[in-house]
């Protein structure tokens, strides 16, 4: 897997640069990719195969580096997985003194948003498909598969 680092803002803090270089060094193996968007004071990460191997917990050095980053910047983690997956893979691995108020969680490809407020994770929003929408989507997919000859009725 290719490694890459995308920076959309100038690193103005030497501490931030040091932390970002630590993250890049940790993720430097062929099994990781890293996508970092620096937008003013917010840094956004993908989870699987970026901060941690797919469906695995972050390594201790990554957990410490993320904690260091949380002490100076706001950090968002976006993943296709569920909220519980981010808690298990990342949050539970962070040092106890991590500044979780600077951490923003966006599971299910951003269809939900959680923020740490007054010692607890708060679900700020969650968009779910209705049962009727799910039925329409499955019917459309089945129709497309039949038309394409992938399946027969």
Describe this protein's structure:
With about 150 residues, the protein is an alpha/beta fold. About 30% of the residues lie in helices and about 20% in strands. The chain has four helices and six strands. The chain has a six-stranded mixed β-sheet with strand order 1-2-3-4-5-6, with no helix packed on it. β4 (about 105) and β5 form a beta hairpin. α1 runs antiparallel to α2. The radius of gyration is 19 Å and the shape is elongated. Residues about 1-15 and about 30-40 have low confidence and may be disordered.
Secondary structure layout:
Layout: H1 14-26, E1 37-39, E2 42-46, H2 60-70, E3 74-78, H3 83-89, E4 103-106, E5 112-117, E6 120-126, H4 131-148
Parallel strand pairs: 2-3, 3-4
Antiparallel strand pairs: 1-2, 4-5, 5-6
Helix pairs in contact: 1-2
**Sheet/helix structural class:** alpha/beta
Strand order within the widest sheet? 1-2-3-4-5-6
Number of helices: 4
- Report the radius of gyration as a whole number of Å: 19 Å
Overall average residue pLDDT: 79
Amount of helix? 25-40%
Secondary structure: number of strands: 6
Question: What attributes does this structure have?
Answer:
153 residues, alpha/beta, six-stranded mixed beta sheet, 4 helices, elongated, disordered N terminus
Summary?
The chain has 153 residues and is α/β, with parallel strands linked by helices. It is built from four helices and six strands; from the N terminus they run H-E-E-H-E-H-E-E-E-H. Strands 1-2-3-4-5-6 form a six-stranded mixed β-sheet, with no helix packed on it.
């Amino acid at each position: 897997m290719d490694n890459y680092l995308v920076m959309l803002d100038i690193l103005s803090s030497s501490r931030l640069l040091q932390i970002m270089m630590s993250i890049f060094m940790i993720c430097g193996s062929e099994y990781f990719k890293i996508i970092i968007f620096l937008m003013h004071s917010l840094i956004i990460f993908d989870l699987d195969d970026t901060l941690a191997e797919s469906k695995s917990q972050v390594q201790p050095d990554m957990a410490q580096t993320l904690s260091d980053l949380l002490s100076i910047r706001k950090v968002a983690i976006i993943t296709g997985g569920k909220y519980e997956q981010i808690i298990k893979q990342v949050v539970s691995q962070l040092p106890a003194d991590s500044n979780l108020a600077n951490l923003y969680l966006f599971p299910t490809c951003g269809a939900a948003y959680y923020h740490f407020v007054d010692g607890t994770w708060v679900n700020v929003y969650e968009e779910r498909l209705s049962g009727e929408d799910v039925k329409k989507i499955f019917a459309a997919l089945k129709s497309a598969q039949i038309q394409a000859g992938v399946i027969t009725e």
